User: Fold these one by one.
Assistant:
Number 1:
Amino acid sequence: MKQPGLQDEMRNFAQQEAFHATIHRRFNQLLQSWGHPVVQMDHFAARIFALVDKLSSTKLRSAIAVAGEHFIGELGNVAITEPNVFADADPRVARMFLWHGYEELEHKAVLFDGYADAYGTGFSSYLHRQLGLLVAIGVLIVVLLDNRGFGCIDRLQQACGGASFNNLFKDCRMGPQGAPAIDFAMHARSLGANGEHVANIGELETAMQRARASTRSYLISIDTDPARPTEEGGWWWEVAVPEVSAREAVRSARASYELEVLARSKRAKE
């Protein structure tokens, strides 16, 4: 590892994963005693892993591990942030998965950092990561919301009183052909998945039916409005706003920021 400190992080990651394996092996034994076919599933997974190990390179196997850790990390995020997930679960089982979720979030980027350190971030590395994603997940349905840039960051920029700058393709410096139009569906098909672009919610609903019937991973892209947020979901981002500015929008955003910080402090004391 060339990156300072990464070797120690990788070693800690391996130790955590070994402990995860021990705990989940015991849990699987308990599930098997309750009549769940865990052993059969383990044997099937072992055969798949052996086949992948035989037919793939070290680079591809590393990419598969990176992809797997990414999705497990996202599951850990759900386990921690969505309390209703374990509302009806045995408290002991819930604690086990919450513990695993916290540790996954702790080291979720370590494998990617190690992969980038060993293989770089060029086209070959990117292609291997996409192939690793397909192998790790098997069949995956992706709904891609295309706002032609970084709409979320652009809204955050404006919410902090700044003017929209360099976050959307249309605002960036362009060549003679203008803003890029990325065909995500074609990109998905080039990697062996199915893909299509839809124009509205009705088309999205019918496309989801085709995606669920597909035996391959399926990507559906749909254009969205980069400036229009939704009322559902989301959290307040504590992004500090400058105290002094010539812009009225920044001064107003600073006042709102201070009120939100004060309200959060009061909630914490209740």
Note: The longest strand covers residues 141-146.
Number 2:
Amino acid sequence: MELFNIRKNINISGGLTLIELLVVIVIIGILTTMGFAAVARARDKANNSRIQAELSQVRVQAVSIRNSTDSFTDLCAGNTLNDAGYPDTLGLLESDITTKSSAVVDCYAIDDSYCVRARMAPSGYYCADSTGYAGISRLDCNGTNYICE
């Protein structure tokens, strides 16, 4: 009756095979990569929001400077914000943008016009000007063009 009493030699162990272990490592790597990408996008959005908020404050300061001096020229110094002339306002705003967002602020002003911009991540510029426009710059804000839109 050995014919019906066949035992199968099955070795059941609690460990993982090498293939299973590699599959788990690959899945963990993919999930980690997706997490890092999401964190990077969130950081870029936060930095862009900071730039927009700070440049909105620059617009308020520009109006204040214009009201007190009848000109926008004191807003900028050397193609950047006049942090020496207004350290408690423009200096703090520029410092906040450059240190926390790693963006460079460009500022150009003449008597009756100004434009201020900062690079956003991953590309493009956020710009504010004396016409009241504040948004993604379509035109090059520079020493000859003081309009962002």
Note: Residues 18-136 form one domain.
